């Protein structure tokens, strides 16, 4: 089966493009920031510079690990689902579930390893740029030289490959009919754990003082955990919403019907969308409130305050880029997979405009759901932070930051879905159905 996996990767590399891109970007992020550990441990680095670099590597490296797993898991899940006919044929030909698992996991490991190896060069360049940012802000001494060592290299390779292997195993296990009962229990445990830990983390904020250096950490982590929990709940919430939408017509009815039928499969889209909105909104608002509080106090920013601001803005930048790429990957793969469905609708009498209208309505419903849930997770952390830090319930920044985050989410979700659907619709309906058969 491993030989079959390698042959499949060589013969149809386009099938694994989304997974390769996710592995490449994830490994690049992990190696970029973990190279700060190598740089901090080099001879002659002063203690202040070493602490700054190690903090950046520890905080963002942890985020990077989670993002890699979610990105690779979402793309692999879509990939395996699109190959359901091929997997069924192999099972009918005598392949056992264990052999299929070895084949799919082997493919995932090979693609992830290739992506991680390709990421080494960009990660070295990104690490140098990141070090320059710290040096330009005065947080790291100019005499510190960049080092890309074993911590960066092995962490990038190991985490990416392990994430791909684990995600592929879970995806093919579901596709071959195993673990359906445990999957439901596992999802419930994850949801309850995320929401409980998120609420506990946010509650911890009120036990700290307004000048505590770690004040931003509990509400930020709480907002992240709540966003993850809400993202995992999103399929069920989406079904409940769809039951109340009064959409009719040649585009509205099939949009609602299709979303209801595919609600469980849309987690690959909803998770990055909700986590992006929740994390970006919470971090940007809390950092803005912190800056205003420091300015109002009339004191210069300390090194710790500068480190925190740099980390927060860096984290948001990573979240924006990586989450957008996860969304684009998931939406592109999911929309392309519907080529046969679109062709059948057109053969049944639907016009290309009506099919595009259906896709637009679906994207709008997904976006609104993601914005509501992501904003809810972010708002819990923001209110806790501003209440303790400024004695106000809400920050003074208004809706500007939130509107900017929502605009990015809308542009990515709607743009990717509609452009991909438009490209799919350029194929004649008969050819689309025949090619997908």
Question: Your description of this structure?
Answer:
With 437 residues, this protein is mainly α. It is built from 16 helices and no strands. It has helices spanning 2-11, 17-40, 47-82, 84-92, 97-118, 120-136, 150-175, 180-204, 217-242, 249-261, 267-297, 303-336, 339-347, 352-390, 400-425, 429-436. The chain is globular, with a radius of gyration of 23 Å.
Q: Which helices and strands, and how do they pair?
A:
Elements: H1 2-11, H2 17-40, H3 47-82, H4 84-92, H5 97-118, H6 120-136, H7 150-175, H8 180-204, H9 217-242, H10 249-261, H11 267-297, H12 303-336, H13 339-347, H14 352-390, H15 400-425, H16 429-436
Core attributes:
single chain, 437 residues, mainly alpha, 0% strand, globular, ABC transporter permease, transmembrane helix
Q: Averaging pLDDT over every residue, what do you get?
A: 80
Figure out the total of helices.
16
Q: Low-confidence parts, pLDDT < 50 over ≥5 residues?
A: none
The secondary-structure class comes to mainly alpha
What's the β-strand tally?
0
Work out the helicity level: over 70%
- Our Rg estimate from Cα atoms comes to 23 Å
The biggest sheet amounts to: none
In percent, how much strand structure appears in the residues?
under 5%
Termini, distance in Å?
Answer: 25 Å
The 3D shape can be described as: globular
Order of helices and strands: HHHHHHHHHHHHHHHH
Protein name: ABC transporter permease
Membrane topology: Multi-pass membrane protein
Family: Belongs to the ABC-4 integral membrane protein family.
GO molecular function: transmembrane transporter activity
């Amino acid at each position: 089966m491993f030989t079959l996996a390698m042959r499949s990767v060589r013969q149809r590399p386009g099938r694994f493009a989304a997974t390769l891109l996710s592995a490449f970007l994830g490994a690049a992020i992990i190696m970029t920031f973990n190279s700060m550990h190598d740089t901090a441990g080099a001879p002659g680095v002063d203690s202040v510079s070493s602490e700054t670099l190690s903090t950046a590597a520890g905080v963002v490296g942890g985020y990077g690990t989670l993002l890699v797993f979610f990105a690779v898991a979402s793309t692999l899940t879509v990939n395996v689902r699109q190959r359901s006919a091929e997997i069924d044929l192999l099972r009918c030909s005598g392949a056992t579930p264990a052999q299929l698992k070895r084949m799919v996991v082997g493919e995932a490991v090979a693609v992830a390893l290739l992506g991680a190896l390709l990421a080494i060069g960009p990660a070295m360049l990104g690490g140098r740029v990141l070090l320059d940012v710290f040096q330009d802000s005065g947080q790291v001494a100019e005499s510190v030289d960049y080092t890309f060592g074993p911590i960066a290299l092995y962490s990038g390779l190991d985490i990416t490959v392990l994430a791909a292997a684990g995600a592929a195993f879970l995806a093919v296990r579901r596709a071959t009919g195993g673990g359906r009962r445990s999957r439901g229990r596992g999802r419930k445990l994850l949801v309850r754990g995320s929401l409980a830990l998120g609420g506990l983390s946010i509650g911890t904020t009120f036990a700290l003082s307004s000048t505590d250096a770690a004040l931003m950490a509990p509400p930020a982590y709480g907002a992240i955990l709540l966003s993850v929990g809400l993202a995992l709940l999103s399929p069920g919430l989406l079904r409940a919403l769809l039951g109340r939408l009064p959409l009719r017509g040649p585009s509205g009815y099939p949009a609602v019907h299709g979303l209801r039928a595919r609600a469980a499969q849309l987690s690959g889209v909803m998770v990055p969308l909700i986590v992006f909105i929740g994390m970006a909104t919470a971090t940007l608002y809390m950092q803005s409130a912190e800056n205003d509080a420091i300015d109002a106090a009339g004191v210069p920013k300390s090194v710790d305050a500068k480190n925190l601001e740099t980390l927060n803005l860096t984290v948001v930048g990573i979240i924006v880029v990586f989450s957008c790429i996860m969304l684009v990957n998931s939406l592109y793969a999911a929309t392309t997979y519907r080529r046969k469905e679109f062709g059948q609708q057109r053969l049944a009498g639907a016009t290309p405009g009506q099919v595009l209208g259906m896709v637009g309505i679906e994207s709008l419903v997904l976006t609104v759901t993601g914005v509501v849930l992501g904003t809810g997770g972010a708002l819990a952390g923001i209110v806790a932070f501003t209440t303790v830090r400024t004695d106000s319930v809400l920050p003074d920044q208004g809706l500007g930051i939130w509107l900017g985050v929502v605009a990015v989410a809308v542009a990515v979700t709607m743009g990717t879905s509609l452009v991909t659907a438009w490209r799919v619709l350029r194929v004649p309906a008969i050819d689309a159905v025949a090619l997908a058969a």
